[in-house]
Amino acid sequence: MKICSTVEELEAALNPFRINKRLIGFVPTMGALHHGHLSLITKAKQENDLVVCSIFVNPTQFNNAADLEKYPRTLGEDERMLKEVECDVLFVPSVDEIYLNGNYSVLNVDFGVLDKGMEGKSRPGHFAGMITVVNKLFMIVKPNSAYFGKKDFQQLALVKYFVQTQHIPVSIRECPIVREADGLAMSSRNRLLSPEERKHALLISKTLFRVKEMRGKKTVSEIKSYVESAFANDGLLKLDYFEIVNAETLVSMEKLEGNAATIVACIAAFAGNVRLIDNETI
Ligand code: AMP
Fold first, then answer.
1. Does 41 sit in the ligand 1 pocket, CB within 6 Å?
2. Residue range 86-118, pLDDT digits in tens
3. Does the beta carbon of 204 lie inside 6 Å of ligand 1?
4. Phi, psi of 103 (to 5 degrees)
5. Side by side, which strands form the sheet with 274-281?
6. If you take atom 5 of ligand 1, which residue's CA is the nearest one?
């Protein structure tokens, strides 16, 4: 695996492939890799001639300085895992390499209603920072395809919208959520959980699976009451939001009965000061 830390090094590594019209697949990450990330690399390997993974903890998408500070960084272990799945190129730029001359300006994209709820509401500025770095990385890597997990369901919807409306020639490939054996969605933040918090965090996926069983049997408000009381009874976890949304428009659903649309239930919750998100198509 070739490791590049500058745009110049990356250009030198990728140019021969570009000239020969080989397909480049790209997996942007913030590191602290787990099997969820590796599933994206594996899919990219299947569909491309060369796979580039980036590890960059993007400061502009953190709306909380303490969260950025404590975000797990495990580069040595990440490199080992990437070699194991035969990733071809790892791009690990410094903050200065991405935000040249200390210019931290972010894109101001009109996402319509897509970014108004859920993560957009709870984490002001998060999506402006996210789309800025995704755009920069797309300009630098110039991939044919880029791989994103449904774990970050709203992020994926925004990236798809951005690429489509800005005519960016990158095919966005969606990958299913990879879970631990007990159901907890894999996340870099899981390693910040204490053993006690880890046990309680299971309530997130358990609740989503229970909600799935309730579709067609309960109203949206009954489901919401169920979820709120499940979290209130937990004592350790704090529910940030629970939403049932249309998968395409991300608009909150008032009614589920007779609706054939794809519907996604989404939860964000705090375990101590670790914020976790998960979702499930219901
Ligand atoms: P992150 O490093 O958290 O920014 O995530 C990088 C990419 O991996 C994003 O596209 C995420 O949606 C994806 N990802 C993170 N966790 C999972 C998971 N458990 N299953 C599938 N994809 C994931």
1. no
2. 999 999 999 999 999 999 999 999 999 999 999
3. no
4. -90, 105
5. 237-246, 263-271, 274-281
6. 29
45, pLDDT greater than 70: yes
Instruction: With residue 148 as reference, give the H or E element that holds it.
Output: strand 145-149
Residues 6+ apart with CB under 8 A from 133: 28, 56, 58, 60, 61, 98
Q: Active-site residue 37, yes or no?
A: yes
User: Which one of 37, 126, 167, 200 is the catalytic residue?
Assistant: 37
Beta-carbon neighbour count of residue 181 at 10 Å? Answer: 5
Least trusted range by pLDDT, from 32-41, 225-234, 245-254: 245-254
For residue 153, report the distance from its CA to the centre of ligand 1, in Å. 10
Determine whether the shortest distance from the Cβ of 188 to ligand 1 is under 6 A: yes
Reading the block at residue 242, the tokens are 């629970």
Average pLDDT for the chain: 96
